[in-house]
Amino acid sequence: MTGKPDVVVLDYGSGNIHSAVRALERAGADVTLTKDTDAVLNASGLVVPGVGAFAAVMSALREIDGPRWIGRRIAGSRPVLGICVGHQVMFDRGVEHGIPAEGLGEWPGEVTALPEDAVVPHMGWNTVRPPEDSVLFDGLKDERFYFVHSYAVQSWDFDQSIESMNPPKVTWSHHGTDFIAAVENGPLSATQFHPEKSGDAGMQLLRNWILSL
Amino acid sequence: MTLSVRVIPCLDVDAGRVVKGVNFENLRDAGDPVELAHRYNRAGADELTFLDVTASSADRETTYDVVTRTAEEVFIPLTVGGGIRSPKDVDRLLRTGADKVSINTAAVSRPEVINEIVGRFGNQVLVLSLDARRSEATESGFEVTTHGGRTGTGIDALAWCRDAADRGVGEILLNSIDADGTRDGFDTEMISAVRAVTRVPLIASGGAGVPAHFPPAIAAGADAVLAASMFHFGPDDMIAQVKDAIRSAGYPVR
After folding, report:
1. Is the ipTM of this complex over 0.90?
2. What part of B 74-93 touches A (C-beta under 8 Å)?
3. Burial of B136 (0-12, 13-18, 19+ CB in 10 A)
4. How would CATH label the architecture of A6-212?
5. Which residues of A are catalytic?
6. Can you give the residue ranges of every domain in chain A?
7. pLDDT tens across A118-145, in order?
8. A203 and chain B in contact, CB less than 8 A
9. pTM for the full model?
10. Do A123 and B170 touch (CB under 8 A)?
11. I need a labelling partner for A210 at 20 to 30 A (CA). Which of A97, A167, B182, B199 fits?
């Protein structure tokens, strides 16, 4: 026992995840890279990384029963953090090259191509607009984060009118159009950018998440 | 525009060591790419590029080790180029800790390798590295070269950028062979010509000598700027100086 929060990075064959593991360690977590059911379900925090195509990430997740684990953790109020395509798959569906693929449907909305007139992929350090009460972006209001993506969620369709609910905190960014850079919704958080590649600001964001576990 | 202009130092690595030397004070080992990566990270680099100039495959193992150690310690994007011929090479480098790989000669010899790589790993991992020179041999006046600019190919550089972008490269690193090493400034005409034919991010390289050289490259259409010796041999705050020059010209920097 180290006394640090234990975090599992979901190992389902997604590209370069070493930096995510190392960055989370540096940010103060005890990190395991695994797809072991018990470990995934019981960890204090689960990180769902993801690069490449939406449909490919979904089918790789299904192969290890990922959607059920993620759903079960969220139902049990256990924190989950999606990164990049791991953020995108939390929405209803992704449409790449005109072909729709079903997502995890934790949030309403579609992941669609960034506008034709923008330089794509959206690659580099961009600003974000977090809400005042954001936990992830606490102390990070004016920082830039590293993005690499060609698709994004461009509208927030969540019904926030039900007063008794704690409304999700949505952080926006802009590249050709406004798009969702991060969502914090009870146990489920996700970022379109890569905190593990965003230098000191990204490290602080991961620390903020780990401290909330 | 809210995306900032990326400033990228490039390190030539041979058998796990930085070649071309680096002129920094207070470095324990100026030949250690990992220590230099730390230093450039602290100095405000937005990304790092390692160009592996290793000749033998045995020595290449040491490069993988350097990439891994860098990725474990420096949390900004890392691109690795040199000697990449197949999806297998890309797989190895991504597993080793690279975020992106750049491909040059192998893509010129066999353009299909671009489709193979992006089909498997996505377009965000692949940078087309292009050494181009002015030439009367092509319609646009810009020609693709290989072997560090020594060999002309007769291929039109603009047609090649269009083709590579259609095949799915996520980014183009445009190095001007004519400007490279001159320290007289970027080839802004070539940058705008390439910008006009593609919408993927464009990194300009070759010719940077002073901070004032950078804003014109961005005005010409570069999304990012890459330099080597100017950072290696310049004062310790050269990245900050370059960013100040870019900011003063009205472009956002981190």
Report:
1. yes
2. 75-77
3. exposed
4. 3-Layer(aba) Sandwich (3.40)
5. 84, 194, 196
6. 6-212
7. 999 999 999 999 999 999 999 998 999 9
8. yes
9. 0.95
10. yes
11. A167
